[in-house]
Q: What sequence folds into this?
C-alpha cells in the first residue's frame, strides 16, 4: 500500500496582522509552517497505516511539496511526523504556478513515483483556503475522489469513507486508487517525536526534483489565472449579539426569533 | 560566527512550544493547587521523547544534546516550573549522572528506561546536616559480600516519591573525606528497606514533590557502584555542572514569559485615562527585563554549546544558574509590580511565577555556592584557595 500526501507550506498566521481598515496584511514575523490541512492529511495517512494489520510489509507514506527551497522544512516536519520519504518539487519555473499548474506539477511527480493507491490532501489550506488542489489533482490523475472526509478505513474492496453530506454525513466505499481530501477537525495531528525531529534534519534526505526531472515544459506550467490585486471581502454581517447568563440569553434569543416570526 | 539555531532545533522548539501550550499551560494552575504533575502528563512527555532529550538515541534518548535540552527546559519554564523541575531532576542530574559515569551495562539497564521515560529518576545527595557542605553526609554504604548495605536519610529529594531509580551518595570511607570517601550508588526504589518519609509543603514549585527518602539496610549489588569507587563527589559535581545550564534555561523561560505578560497587561491596563504602557516607569522596568533576558539567553546557549562540544564549562554553567535564577527573580518581581494588586492574586500566573522562581536561587547549589565555584576557578591559577 502506498499513500502519497501532497503538503503545503504556509506563512505562519501567528506572525501576521490583518488590518481591515488599511486593507492590508502586515507580516510582523516571516515564519513558515506546515499547513494545518496538510498535517490532517498526514495524520489520516498515518492512522490508516497504523490500523492495518500488515502495515509492516509494503506500506509507505510519501510526502510531496511543490514550493520554494524553504518548503524543505515542511517536508522535514512531515518526516518527523512519521512519513517514510519526502520529495521537494522546486524550480524557478514553478514560482508563478497557480492551483491548476500546481496540480500538474504534483501529477508529474506522482507519475514519476509510479502512482499511488491513495492520495490524501487537506480539504483546504490555512492561507488561501481555496479547497481546489484535491479535486484538480484527482481530475489530473484520473482518480476517483472523496472530499471532506471525516473517517476513513480500508475495507474489503476498497476504502470506506464517511464524508459530510448536505445536513449530515454519508458513508461511501471507493475502489482504489482514490484521492481523499480530509476535514482538519476530524484528524487532529499528532506531535512529531523528538528523536524523529533530530533525524529528519541530521540523517534523512529530501530529494529535489525540478521541471526537467518532472518532464514539465513551459506549456504544462502555464497558469490559468493571472493575479491582479488583493482585496478584502466585504465585512460579514454578524447579526445581533446576545450577552448574559445562558438561561437569560436563551430567552432573549427566543424573543428575538419570535419578533422576526422565525419561531412561534 | 553564527548565532542562529540549526533548523532541527527550530522545529524542536516549535513542537515543544505547541506541546507546552496545549498540554501543560491549561493545567499549570491545577498542578500548583493540587500539588502534583499528573502521571499521564509525564507519560505523554515520555512518549514524545521529552524525558531523555540530551541523551544519545542509542540509549533511548532524543539525541538533541544540551542545546536541545536547554530549548525544552526554556519552553517548559514558560508554562510550568513544577513540570520543569520534575523533568530537570530526572534528566539533568539523575539520568545525567548515569550517562556521564555509568558502565555500558548500567546505561543499558538504567539509562535506557530513564531516557525513554518508562522510569523516573531522582538524585539523593542532600541530608539534614549536609547541603551546600556535601561532604558532611552521614548516609553510609558498607560492603557485605557482593553487595553494599546502605543506611541513612536523604531530605528535599525532588521526585523522591515517584522515582524508580535514585542515585544515592553515601560515605564509604569516613577517613578519606569528600574526595575518596564518598561513593555514588544506583538504587532501585522498590528495594526492601527503601521508603518515603514526609513530603515538603513548599512555597513554590508545589506540583513537584520533594520527599524525605529513608534507606534502612538497603542492599545493592556491587555492580551498582556508579563511577569510580570513592569518587562519588566527582560524579555529582560533573552532573550538577551540566544541570546548571539547563536550570538557567528554565529560568530564561520564566523571565521571558513574565516580560511578555507585563507588556500585554501594560497595554490593557488603563490609569489616568491612558494605558500604563505609555508610562516611562513601566518602560524602564520592561527594558531592564529585556536586557537581562537577552544576556541570559546568550549565556545559556553558549554554555550549552560549550557542553555539547566538550569544552570547559564549569564557571559558565555556574553563571547560568546564578544569573538565570536572579534574572528570573528580578523579572518576576518587576512583572508583579507592573501587574499591581492583580499580580498579588492567587488567580494570576504572575503570583505563581514569583513563588516558583524563588527556589531556583537555592536548589542545585545555592547561589552563594555558585559564586564560590566561579571564584575558586578564577583564583586557582594564582594558587589562591577560596574558602567556603
A:
Amino acid at each position: 500500500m502506498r499513500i502519497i500526501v501532497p503538503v503545503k507550506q504556509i506563512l505562519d498566521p501567528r506572525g501576521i496582522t490583518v488590518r481591515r481598515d488599511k486593507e492590508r496584511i502586515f507580516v510582523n514575523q516571516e515564519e513558515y509552517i506546515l499547513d494545518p490541512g496538510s498535517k490532517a492529511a498526514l495524520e489520516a495517512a498515518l492512522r490508516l497505516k497504523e490500523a492495518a494489520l500488515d502495515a509492516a510489509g509494503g506500506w509507505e507514506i510519501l510526502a510531496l511539496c511543490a514550493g520554494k527551497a524553504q518548503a524543505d522544512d515542511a517536508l522535514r516536519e512531515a518526516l518527523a511526523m512519521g512519513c517514510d520519504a519526502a520529495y521537494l518539487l522546486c524550480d524557478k519555473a514553478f514560482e508563478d504556478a497557480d492551483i491548476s499548474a500546481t496540480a500538474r506539477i504534483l501529477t508529474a511527480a506522482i507519475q514519476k513515483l509510479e502512482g499511488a493507491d491513495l492520495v490524501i490532501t487537506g480539504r483546504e489550506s490555512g492561507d488561501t483556503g481555496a479547497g481546489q488542489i484535491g479535486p484538480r489533482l484527482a481530475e489530473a490523475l484520473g482518480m476517483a475522489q472523496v472530499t471532506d472526509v471525516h473517517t476513513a478505513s480500508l475495507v474489503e474492496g476498497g476504502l470506506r469513507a464517511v464524508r459530510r453530506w448536505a445536513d449530515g454525513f454519508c458513508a461511501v466505499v471507493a475502489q482504489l486508487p482514490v484521492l481523499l481530501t480530509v476535514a482538519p477537525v476530524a484528524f487532529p495531528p499528532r506531535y512529531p517525536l523528538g528523536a524523529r525531529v533530530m533525524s529528519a534534519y541530521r540523517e534523512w534526505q529530501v530529494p529535489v526534483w525540478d521541471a526537467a526531472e518532472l518532464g514539465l515544459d513551459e506549456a504544462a506550467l502555464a497558469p490559468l489565472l493571472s493575479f491582479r490585486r488583493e482585496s478584502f471581502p466585504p465585512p460579514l454581517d454578524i447579526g445581533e449579539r446576545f450577552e448574559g447568563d445562558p438561561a437569560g440569553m436563551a430567552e432573549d434569543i427566543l424573543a428575538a426569533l419570535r419578533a422576526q416570526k422565525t419561531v412561534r | 560566527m553564527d548565532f542562529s539555531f540549526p533548523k532541527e532545533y527550530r522545529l524542536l522548539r516549535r513542537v515543544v512550544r505547541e506541546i507546552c501550550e496545549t498540554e501543560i499551560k491549561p493545567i499549570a494552575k491545577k498542578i500548583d493547587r493540587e500539588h502534583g504533575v499528573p502521571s499521564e502528563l509525564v507519560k505523554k512527555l515520555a512518549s514524545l521523547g521529552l524525558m531523555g532529550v540530551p541523551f544519545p538515541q542509542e540509549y533511548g534518548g532524543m539525541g538533541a544534546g544540551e542545546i536541545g535540552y536547554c530549548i525544552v527546559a526554556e519552553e517548559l519554564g514558560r508554562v510550568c516550573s513544577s513540570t520543569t523541575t520534575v523533568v530537570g531532576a530526572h534528566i539533568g542530574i539523575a539520568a545525567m549522572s548515569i550517562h556521564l559515569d555509568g558502565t555500558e551495562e548500567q546505561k543499558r539497564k538504567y539509562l535506557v528506561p530513564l531516557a525513554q521515560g518508562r522510569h523516573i529518576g531522582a538524585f539523593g545527595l542532600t541530608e539534614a546536616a549536609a547541603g551546600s557542605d556535601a561532604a558532611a553526609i552521614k548516609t553510609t554504604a558498607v560492603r557485605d559480600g557482593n553487595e553494599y548495605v546502605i543506611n541513612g536519610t536523604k531530605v528535599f529529594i525532588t521526585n523522591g516519591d515517584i522515582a524508580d531509580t535514585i542515585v544515592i551518595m553515601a560515605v564509604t570511607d569516613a577517613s578519606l573525606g569528600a574526595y575518596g570517601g564518598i561513593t555514588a550508588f544506583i538504587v532501585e526504589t522498590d528495594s526492601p528497606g527503601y521508603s518515603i518519609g514526609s513530603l515538603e509543603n513548599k512555597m513554590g514549585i508545589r506540583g513537584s514533590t520533594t520527599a524525605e527518602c529513608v534507606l534502612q539496610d538497603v542492599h545493592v549489588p556491587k555492580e551498582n557502584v556508579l563511577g569510580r569507587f570513592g569518587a562519588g563527589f566527582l560524579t555529582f559535581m560533573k552532573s550538577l555542572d551540566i544541570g546548571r545550564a539547563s536550570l538557567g534555561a528554565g529560568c530564561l523561560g520564566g523571565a521571558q514569559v513574565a516580560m511578555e505578560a507585563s507588556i500585554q497587561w501594560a497595554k490593557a491596563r488603563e490609569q489616568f485615562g491612558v494605558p500604563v504602557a505609555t508610562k516611562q516607569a513601566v518602560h524602564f522596568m520592561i527594558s531592564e527585563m529585556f536586557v537581562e533576558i537577552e544576556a541570559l539567553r546568550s549565556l545559556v546557549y553558549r554554555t550549552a554549546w560549550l557542553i555539547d562540544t566538550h569544552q570547559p564549562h564549569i564557571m559558565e554553567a555556574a553563571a547560568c544558574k546564578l544569573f538565570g535564577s536572579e534574572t528570573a527573580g528580578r523579572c518576576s518581581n518587576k512583572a508583579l509590580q507592573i501587574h499591581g494588586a492583580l499580580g498579588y492574586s492567587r488567580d494570576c500566573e504572575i503570583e505563581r511565577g514569583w513563588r516558583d522562581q524563588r527556589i531556583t536561587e537555592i536548589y542545585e547549589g545555592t547561589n552563594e555556592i555558585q559564586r564560590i565555584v566561579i571564584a575558586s576557578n578564577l583564583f586557582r591559577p594564582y594558587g589562591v584557595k577560596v574558602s567556603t
